[in-house]
Amino acid sequence: MHNKMLRALVLALAVVAAVAAVEQRATYIVHMAKSAMPAEYADHGEWYGASLRSVSAGSAAKMLYAYDTVLHGFSARLTAQEASDMACMEGVLAVNPEARYELHTTRTPEFLGIAGSGQGLFPQSGTAGDVVVGVLDTGVWPESKSYDDTGLAEVPSWWKGECMAGTAFNSSACNRKLVGARFFNKGYEAAMGRMDTDRESRSPRDDDGHGTHTSSTAAGAAVSDASLFGFASGTARGMAPKARVAVYKVCWLGGCLSSDILAGMDAAVSDGCGVLSLSLGGGAADYARDSVAIGAFAAMEQNVLVSCSAGNTGPGSSTLSNVAPWITTVGAGTLDRDFPAYVALGNGKNYTGVSLYAGKALPNTPLPIVYAANVSNSTAGNLCMPGTLTPEKVAGKIVVCDRGVSARVQKGFVVRDALGAGMVLANTAANGQELVADAHLLPAAGVGDREGTAIKSYVASDPNPTATIVIAGTHVDVHPSPVVAAFSSRGPNMVTPEILKPDIIAPGVNILAAWTGKAGPTGLVADTRRVGFNIISGTSMSCPHVSGLAALLRSAHPEWSPAALRSALMTTAYAAYSGGSPLLDAATGATATPFDYGAGHVDPARAVDPGLVYDLGTRDYVDFLCALKYSSTMIAAVARSREYACDEKKTYSVGNLNYPSFSVVYYTANGDGSNSAATTVTHTRTLTNVGGPGKYKVSTAFAAKGVAMDVEPAELEFTSVGEKKSYTVRFTSKSQPSGTTGFGRLVWSDGKHNVASPIAFTWT
């Protein structure tokens, strides 16, 4: 009897668990075909609501947002069964589960050649080229001087944005510079629960600092005497200091939810933003399931350029985010500015690192130095994780900690809490020689992998090792620069290998820009310091550089499409230093490749007059999706309409997408290169003249074994602005072992303009 009752109880519990699992709700994005709305509904909102109620018993499902610009549809909390039922309804294009995205967390104008007289290349505000940069991020600190509107004309009459009031944020916070501020939290609170308003502001106010940093980088006003504790002192200005800024807070402590991101993009495009900047990502996904890609497609149709960060998961290959060809994907490089700190060892050797420490210096006399792994109670003690260091073995000493797992600055907190006097933060092989400066709370220096290895070797071999750390301030004119940041995510493109990504790199290491008044420069709760400007690194920082530069180009050429703007930035980028040697990779110290930097490092002074551009429009991108064998439903999910279809009689090719770069993929039959048959891959491109009359001749240079290139025709002559000329490139190669790569460059030149395209060869 007892066993029967026990079995019955177990069965009942299983049933309850199964029912709970079925009833568990999650957020889904429902894509609707706008033209399919039945005549009985007065508007699309009414139709969306009725559709939701039809699949939800007792109307339990809750609608979060209705979208009308970057997609047609809505987001709602559904059970798995309701989502499945919804996907089968008439007029529904797709039902995608919500995704979680993460943030890709003064000297720059001089480095890019657009400070001072360089700004004269571009129109000022108040002209027909007035541009608003929409930044989707963590919000804004409106009191920052970077949003001073002195000298700006009245806000354009076509602007539809608003300044939303909320916690510690008044609608009067906006002005002629900061023309809009909205926040979107319905998806976040639906997924994470009601936010803790002691930690987060239910308003556009930036509690984190990331959004203030990115928006001021893109279009902040010029602020003199800006610095972080005296580091990087000078005038801080955004890339487009006369452009307007509108912020859309879509990221919170728990991340950035796709339902909120889409709502932000929907509002930004409707408000009238000309450029959208998103320093966030969630890995690479199929375009029909990637909310940012879908929103960006609609923005492109509305003539809005979308710039996104490539990601911070380098230097590994195929680590990119935001790879859709209608998105401008931005990697990170270094500036010619550094913040050196010197580690002087007791054996007389000195090693150079970096630091933004600004407190009391270490004593002149050397201190004992220890390796964290030897003074820890943990098997991972080398990483200086919280609670792992033994104070009795650390007190009064400099501790060598290995980089990784926990935040760099947090390791310093751990050393300080264990009564350590200072820290040497040593890169491992994963970070190589890349040095990222941090505003440590104790004397500390970050050093490269080679230096860290040498310091740890000294500590292990000397019976009484000693050291001291000297902070040396700010140095400029550092060479070589730029180098590709080790953290910057790399190609090849895992979604579509035939599209070379990233598109370009821009400054993203040790960038000074405005900061929130709510958090310290390290972003850690224990950091009680407050600063007006902060120095941080990431493709989050490089992305708004390109967003601001795109705004400058748009002000100079308001008639250009988003694709033309991107083409101008890409084809004028440089992949070699002034002496002719190729750009380097911080991760290895070796030559970087187009998988690391795309077309190269942005050069805005040249981009304003590119000569020729590779243009693209909606139909071109739909043909690209047809070449990928997308079904009509998948295309409709991306393009928001069933009006676009593939012609069964037409042959589509990814190689015919009019992209400013070439990714040539050879699919080897045997994988080992044993098949000796030659394979030809053909790409067709069309150039549009945006300059004066000219005769352009082609040249190619490549380092790819066994490849032959043929460009036809080899000369293109243009007589008028807007004239288009096409050419074909045939890449012929014998089979190579799978995994082999090669690189090159194709350049059209009229003697004044060099219209350059990178080439990547892959055998797979």
Give structural notes.
The chain has 764 residues and is of the alpha/beta class. It folds into four domains: 25-97, 2-Layer Sandwich (Alpha-Beta Plaits); 137-335 and 481-608, Peptidase S8/S53 domain (Rossmann fold); 340-471, Glucose Oxidase, domain 1 (3-Layer(bba) Sandwich); 612-616 and 658-763, Immunoglobulin-like, CATH 2.60.40. The strands form ten sheets. The chain has a seven-stranded parallel β-sheet with strand order 7-10-6-13-15-16-27, sandwiched between helices. Strand 38 (741-749) and strand 39 (754-763) form a beta hairpin. The chain is globular and about 80 Å long. The termini are far apart. Residues 12-22 have low confidence and may be disordered. Residues 130-600 form the Peptidase S8/S53 domain. InterPro entries: PA_domain, Peptidase_S8/S53_dom, Peptidase_S8/S53_dom_sf, Peptidase_S8_Ser-AS, Peptidase_S8_subtilisin-rel, Peptidases_S8_3, S8pro/Inhibitor_I9, S8pro/Inhibitor_I9_sf.
